[in-house]
Amino acid sequence: MKKFFYRLLFWIILIFLFVGFFLGNLYIKSSNLNLQNKYIKDFEISLDLVNTSLNEFLLNFESAIYMLSSNENLIKVTTNTNYYNSTINLFKSFQESYSSTAYAYFAPINKLDNGKKLITWPDTSNELSTKDWFPISRPWYNLAIKNKNLIIWTDPYTDATTKEQTLTVSKTVQDKNDNIIGVLAIDIFLKDLKNKIKEFKTPNKFDIFLIDKEGNFIEIVSNNLNSNKLNTNYKLKENLNLKGKNNYYDYINDEKYYISYKINPSTNWKLISMINYNDILEETKQFKKDMFIIISLVISFGILSIIYIFISMNNSIKTLSLSLKENIKKDKTNHKFIDHNFNLLKEFDLKSNPDIILYFKCENLINDINCFFNNNISKSKNEIHNVLINEYDIKINLLIKDLTQLNNNIAKNYIDSLVKLKNNLSDFF
């Protein structure tokens, strides 16, 4: 019986372990995927915020240059150099209002009467006048002339004076007859734009680049990658144009990256952000550890509960069996003249002693119930209960009824034994 009990307990625990770890692993994988998706969603939101903030920054300069291009000083200085200093002061005030301005300048179609090719603040006109430099050779000038009255953004280039990587926004200036008299331009150093983007507090594991109209990577925020390597990665450049979607997975230097980009509406540059896939997984590692510990504790508690329940059931059945045996032993001391050996029946005249037959029925019923419990100890309580209700309970009630009619001490002892038996059975269930 013990072997069967322990075998049953072993298989229940084994099944519980299998189901627990299967469901736990399923939950961890599902939650892990949800965490990755949430992290990627946060990544996309961060990129959107950077792009929106960058666009607002650039739009401020577009609005400023549009307003500045209609200033009377710019129109008059082309024909009257007396407005030269007031134009310089205009640019100086502009730079003070827009702190990210590196240079503000105006290049007239024709040289000014004082021989200047350029009116600029900070003033570098003298330096440029000694060089073989003409505005017509610069992209900001030519693109503005070709796109009259439109605001033009150049791709980053090296400034002739400072040798810094520079972005320029430019626009034509027209006279009252709508004739182009020159080009107004504002320079922004690329390093200042980078610092502005870094102020947006992007996550420290992101790499952010601008991709100009020529497809060149311009490093903005670099944590793992640099623009030199990316500019020689022609497969990456090709995928950016062929994928047909603005977020996907790709391999860079044999490592998997999640790549996403947005088109900046002011410049039509691509603002691209990349994050190493291992960094995404790193964010979920602690969650996996925590969930593994929690699930292990739950499974351990479940196993201990199963063992406790089985031991309690086994003890209850043993207690009932011992109680039944004890009651039978006590009953035998009250009517010692009854023997279990059926040969004893030969010593009585059964026809003239119906009381003896009734006593033997009581003995047999008590023994039958005791044997039934010993033989069916491994069965569930419901199965035992059904048999007792349908068979033995009825027999006990009938015997008590018959014994009551005898009205003697032996009959009373048997009635007490049967009542105790019924009470023990009731307590068990």
Written overview of the protein:
With 429 residues, the protein is of the alpha+beta class. Among the domains are: 69-193, 2-Layer Sandwich (Beta-Lactamase), CATH 3.30.450.20; 286-428, no CATH class. Helices cover 58% and strands 15% of the residues. The protein contains 12 helices and 11 strands. The strands form 2 sheets. Strands 1, 2, 3, 4, 5 and 6 form a 6-stranded antiparallel β-sheet that branches. A hairpin with a 2-residue loop joins β9 (247-252) and β10. The longest helix is centred in the first third of the chain and has 67 residues, at 2-68. The two termini are 21 Å apart. Residues 332-352 have low confidence and may be disordered.
Distance between the termini: 21 Å
Count of individual helical segments:
12
Q: Please provide the ordered H/E string of secondary-structure elements.
A: HHHEEHHEEEEHEEHHEEEHHHH
The structural class is alpha+beta
Largest sheet: 6 strands, antiparallel
Determine Rg (CA atoms, Å).
Answer: 49 Å
User: In what range is the share of β-strand residues?
Assistant: 15-25%
Mean pLDDT: 77
Helix content: 55-70%
Low-confidence sequence ranges: 332-352
Give a count of the beta strands, DSSP E runs of length 2 or more.
Answer: 11
So what's the overall shape?
A: rod-shaped
Give a brief description:
By secondary structure, this protein is an alpha+beta fold. The protein has helices spanning 2-68, 72-77, 84-97, 125-129, 139-146, 190-198, 227-231, 234-242, 277-334, 354-375, 381-406, 409-428, and strands at residues 103-108, 119-121, 152-153, 157-158, 165-174, 180-189, 207-211, 217-221, 247-252, 255-263, 270-276.
